[in-house]
């Protein structure tokens, strides 16, 4: 009897995706009905449709007590002590400890590493000290469990999930039936490409980042002869929340191939969450969506506190910083949303449909640019924003802001390293935001954390940053002009397409296609 393919246990994931109402790309041979809209859930089970039920996965070890298993080799030949071998022997709740390795990188040569336990934690020596590298040939991890795959003090990079034909894909570094948690870790350089690409780096029921980074990942709708889709360039949570704590989501993209002439639906350049979530002391910057939600796209309520969303782009549609397709409440406290761009409206925040409520408290939404009007906050219909102590330079005409909202230039420094684990936008001397804010959550510190008080001299500043004078920024991230955004769109699509062509020429693409067809 032939061995079951290693990708054959993710049918529950496909079912969950279908239930989540995530749009699937439409083949050219099946025209879109007039009533079609993103999120109608047609056929998303095609993602991993060839996969069979998890019941054939390795049986759990009866009475297993959680243990710590040591990785002693940086090879990937399956021999004893290698990461692949140790993970294959792990049981429920085990910790795989690779913290003693000094090699710098584990280059995977045997494809993605399967993870069968519901709960497993992998510990490395530090994100800068050890990377597990997919070498652009396959995913890094496939988590068949329904619990949490924890990744601590490690980097995952160069994962690939590329499929051919009218097929969808996702999770180029990690794909999970359950949840993925990053602690002091980095996931970068991952590419998911297909007619529909759902999650450039991570696709999971829920995603949690603690002092971690998602950078330079891409979800690419790559079919040249079909309407394509791309969700969550950095990560996609398909039936759970995304939680960000003191983390960075930077330089990710949800886009389509430069050769695509049939249209696309792209959303969530940095993050896409089906059930909302929360960002605290985190920065989403420099992310790109060809369509909506350059930094963040959510289909449910989302909370944002002491965070910065800056320099993101929604090239042709709405929500350069945040795109919210919700009928739920959102609350934004002590945050800065600035320097984002959009093609139509709501370059800072855009609501598709009217949320039950938006509470904006002691936050800056400013200097967001769009081709037309309605730069900072826009909705599809008349809407009243609750809250106080805000600075919003340009709300849409149908958006009613709190009466005490300031409208002048906040005088922000560009995004820079100003202390703490994430980049922030400091305030210039003379900024109207100085001393004009509030501290509704009674936080001790601003976004930067310990050593940076939230309130000084009895006064709180508006936005994520507290302080009258910011240091000169070392790494400015200006807002993208329309022309620069257009050039970026062309570059991202063309670059990703060149990657695909190189892989086709080297045989990697063919090998992946064969693997997927077998699975």
For the report, how would you describe the main beta sheet?
A: 12 strands, parallel
Mean pLDDT: 82
Using the CA coordinates, give the radius of gyration.
22 Å
Helix content: 10-25%
The low-confidence parts are 1-11, 23-60, 477-492, 499-519
Shape: globular
Query: How would you write the strand order of the largest sheet?
Result: 1-2-5-8-13-18-23-28-32-36-40-45
Number of strands: 49
Which percent band covers the strand fraction?
25-35%
Helices, by number, come to 4
Q: In whole angstroms, how far apart are the ends?
A: 15 Å
Give the key terms.
twelve-stranded parallel β-sheet; mainly beta; 2 domains
What features would you describe in this structure?
This protein is mainly β and 519 residues long. The protein has two domains: 234 residues; 183 residues, no CATH class. The chain is 10% helix and 30% strand. It is built from four helices and 49 strands. It has a twelve-stranded parallel sheet, with helices on one face. An eleven-stranded parallel sheet has the order 3-6-9-14-19-24-29-33-37-41-46, with no helix packed on it. It has a ten-stranded parallel sheet with strand order 4-7-12-17-22-27-31-35-39-43. Helix 2 links the parallel strand 1 and strand 2. The two termini are 15 Å apart.
Question: What is the secondary structure topology, with strand pairs?
Answer:
Elements: H1 11-20, E1 68-70, H2 83-89, E2 94-97, E3 105-107, E4 113-115, E5 120-123, E6 131-133, E7 141-143, E8 148-152, E9 155-157, E10 160-162, E11 168-169, E12 174-176, E13 179-183, E14 186-188, E15 191-194, E16 196-198, E17 202-204, E18 206-210, E19 213-215, E20 218-221, E21 228-231, E22 235-237, E23 242-245, E24 248-250, E25 253-256, E26 264-267, E27 271-273, E28 277-280, E29 283-285, E30 288-289, E31 296-298, E32 302-305, E33 308-310, E34 313-314, E35 322-324, E36 329-333, E37 336-338, E38 341-342, E39 349-351, E40 357-361, E41 364-366, E42 369-370, E43 377-379, E44 383-384, E45 386-388, E46 391-392, E47 399-400, E48 455-456, E49 459-460, H3 482-506, H4 508-518
Parallel strand pairs: 1-2, 2-5, 3-6, 4-7, 5-8, 6-9, 7-12, 8-13, 9-14, 10-15, 11-16, 12-17, 13-18, 14-19, 15-20, 16-21, 17-22, 18-23, 19-24, 20-25, 21-26, 22-27, 23-28, 24-29, 25-30, 27-31, 28-32, 29-33, 30-34, 31-35, 32-36, 33-37, 34-38, 35-39, 36-40, 37-41, 38-42, 39-43, 40-45, 41-46, ...
Antiparallel strand pairs: 48-49
